[in-house]
Amino acid sequence: MCWLRRAGRPIPPGRSPGIYRAAGAQHAVSGPPALHHGLCIEAAAGQLPAELGHQTSRRRTGRVRAASPGHGEPALSNPPPPCTRVRAARASPAGAMNIVLEFFVVTFKVLWAFVLAAAKWLVRPKEKSVSGQVCLITGAGSGLGRLFALEFARRRAQLVLWDINSQSNEETADMVRGIYRELQAEDALRASKCTAAAEEEVTPSYNLQVYTYTCDVGKRESVYMAAEKVRREVGDVFLLLNNAGVVSGHHLLECPDELIERTMMVNCHAHFWTTKAFLPKMMEMNHGHIVTVASSLGLFSTAGVEDYCASKFGAVGFHESLSHELKAADKDGIKTTLVCPYLVDTGMFRGCRIRKEIEPFLPPLKPDYCVKQAMRAILTDQAMICTPRLMYIVTCMKSILPFEAVVCMYRFLGADKCMYPFIAQRKQATNNNETKNGI
């Protein structure tokens, strides 16, 4: 038995027995308090079990005091086991007030983010300069990668071009060198005019160069070896643009396992290898930019290209998680941009068609237009760009509509089987090559 005193006041005699837990057992406490007034337990809110006995023990959440027997009362030969009173924890009023205040602050920040986003639609933000910065582009030998290289060259960036095809990569490099020569001629002409007018000298131009490396981004060892060469021969990379991509062009049950693995490696896994190679220095300097060229098929899918959609969904997930990790690490100097274009007319999906009545309103994107929109987003540190803007609506509707409703929309637009003509053409081309080679 024991007598509890709450906030310095004894429990009135005759109170109903209370149940107390100690060391996994329950002990009923009853009887007049005069029997053991020498044993007193004082507990505060949120108390923990305290050891009872003849030895004084103080805890952070409670205090146990044992007194010598007196007034003819018998001493406790067998002290009761540790016990504690169980009661509901009370929320601190100050803590509740902090939560309310923080909620209002977060609400204000969310609304302010909407205001800033709307302002960017009305007033075009100023583009940052990449002059003299080292920009690395994967898949630069053709398609969007080549166009990205030309755009960055016009902005005087030092370019590092990666591609598995060395010949096409060198062709891109020759185009870049032509742009550099034009820029140097313009700088020389401007400098001569300034000298003739006795004006101050213009800002000196960088010694612009382009570097090419043959690299299979689908192979981890190849990525790390090429990255080491870049650091040794060029320097630290400021902007990493993951653009390389492949597509198998087979239905799932007809697609060889090797092609599925290849698609996943190039379109998704390569982003891990390239980021791991160049992100550490960016984090050390708190300066850099990582661009992920994904696809609208990384936000919503269609039939016949399961491997491609899975790889692009993976790239989008990787990019978003990386962005959150950089924010959590307070690396605000490292920017990220996710590029998700609709079908681009680069020949990669030649033959892909939606419903002919809808196609005039949603034609394949011109590569130049797609890259210019992406460049604007990159240079203004925009977190995500979907081209055309209709893709934002489609993504939102896909997230909130029932699946059957999405299927109905796909069938109306002709998007449910839009890849079938492309797959048929790829299959026919494969058969022709096998016949030509005598296979």
From TrEMBL:
GO terms for molecular function: all-trans-retinol dehydrogenase (NADP+) activity. It is an enzyme of class 1 (oxidoreductase). One of its GO terms (cellular component) is lipid droplet. InterPro entries: NAD(P)-bd_dom_sf, Sc_DH/Rdtase_CS, SDR_fam. Pathway: Cofactor metabolism; retinol metabolism. It catalyses: all-trans-retinol + NADP(+) = all-trans-retinal + NADPH + H(+). Its EC number is 1.1.1.300. Keywords: Endoplasmic reticulum, Membrane, Microsome, NADP, Oxidoreductase, Signal-anchor, Transmembrane, Transmembrane helix. It comes from the Eukaryota. Residues 52-82 are annotated as: Disordered. It is found in: Endoplasmic reticulum membrane; Microsome membrane. Belongs to the short-chain dehydrogenases/reductases (SDR) family. Retinol dehydrogenase with a clear preference for NADP. Converts all-trans-retinol to all-trans-retinal. Has no detectable activity towards 11-cis-retinol, 9-cis-retinol and 13-cis-retinol. This is NADP-retinol dehydrogenase. It comes from Leptobrachium leishanense (Leishan spiny toad).
